[in-house]
Amino acid sequence: MPGIFGIISKNNNIKRNSHNIDSMTNTLLHESFYSSGKFAQEDLNIFVGWVVHKNSSNDCMPIFNESKDLILFFSGEHYPDLSEISYLKKKNHSFQKGDFSFLIHLYEEKKEEFFKILNGKFNGLLIDLNNKKVILFNDRYGFQRMYYYETNENFVFSSEAKAILKICPECRELRMDSLGQFFSFNCILENNTLFEKVYLLPGASKWSFNARKNIKKEAYFFPNEWENQPVVSNEILYSNVHNTIIKILPKYFNANEKVGLSLTGGFDTRIILANRENPANSLPCYTFGGMYRDCYDVKVARKIASACKQTHQTLRLDKKFLTQFPELAKKVVYITDGAFDISGAQNLYINKMVR
């Protein structure tokens, strides 16, 4: 998966750290349609790399402000309101249309509020040269994973654990308690991972590193802020959900990339189509199916697409998938650092067809 990774170091071994970034990059280049890059702020001993989808919104790193004293590396999603873009233009900021280059200016204007404004699955690194400060952050619930390994000399972070394991062989040992949790609950608890000494950044993290590389571990959001809101009636809840969908849904169709809809028989995809203006044949729809007969999802999705005057395609698991299964099973475990088992092999196969 695309992501960012890097080393925040207390030593000044520039050659070794740069070589390690190259090694980390190679572990994340899973597909031919990925592009990559690296950046070093040598006076602060900060080394960063990234892997992104070519020509995606993330494919604009490193992101500088006009005075080039703020640098941002951002991986994941953010769905801006048009008011955000308009606000930044009124402040005379310049940035590219259609990518995330505007985000550094949003931080410049909003400072600490910036992290709460972000609204997708993401992680990122911000370098503040004036204050000799670095901030590592992620989304509210840690959906976009960020692994880290901390020693007296280095803080190593990566969107995939394998990049850390590549340059830190002392981490290549399974944690037995994590393995037990994985087999018992199909997940690992308390921000631990399958690997010794490697941990997950907690959700809503905003970890700051000063010139001495001391870490201030803070959170910019706590779940009880949302969980302890007053209970509302069903009528108000319905109205609020309805208005929220109408407001937010268009943002998901403003991407640079082509957009298709994974259409099922469920209410979620029906809600999307029902609340969006869909000119005929403007939104390609597809559904996953088996090799022998149409399942419920395929039958219903085909009718929904027809009713909304959209094209529909059924993407099927076929005998070719069975011949490729051993390779796909191995790849899905490798890509997900063991977080997904071989039952995810079909996802790799069918989503390649989607692309």
Low-confidence spans: none
Shape: globular
Largest sheet: 6 strands, antiparallel
Q: Radius of gyration, Cα only, in angstroms?
A: 22 Å
Number of strands: 15
The number of distinct helices, counting runs of at least 4 residues, comes to 12
Structural class, judged by helices and strands? Answer: alpha+beta
Q: Tell me, rounded to a whole number, the average pLDDT.
A: 94
Share in helix: 25-40%
Widest β-sheet, arrangement of strands: 2-3-1-9-8-10
Distance between the termini: 15 Å
| Order of H and E elements | EHEEEEHHHEEEEHHEEEHHEHEHEHH
Strand proportion: 15-25%
General description of the model:
The protein has 355 residues and is an alpha+beta fold. It is built from twelve helices and 15 strands. It has helices spanning 14-28, 82-90, 103-110, 114-117, 161-167, 176-185, 224-227, 234-248, 267-274, 296-307, 319-335, 345-354, and strands at residues 3-9, 34-41, 46-53, 63-64, 70-76, 122-128, 133-138, 147-150, 154-158, 199-200, 205-209, 215-219, 261-262, 285-289, 312-316. The strands form three sheets. Strands 2-3-1-9-8-10 form a six-stranded antiparallel sheet, with helices on one face. Strands 4-5-6-7-11-12 form a six-stranded antiparallel sheet, with helices on one face. Strands 13-14-15 form a three-stranded parallel sheet, sandwiched between helices. Helix 1 packs across helix 5 (161-167) and helix 11 packs across helix 12 (345-354). The two termini are 15 Å apart.
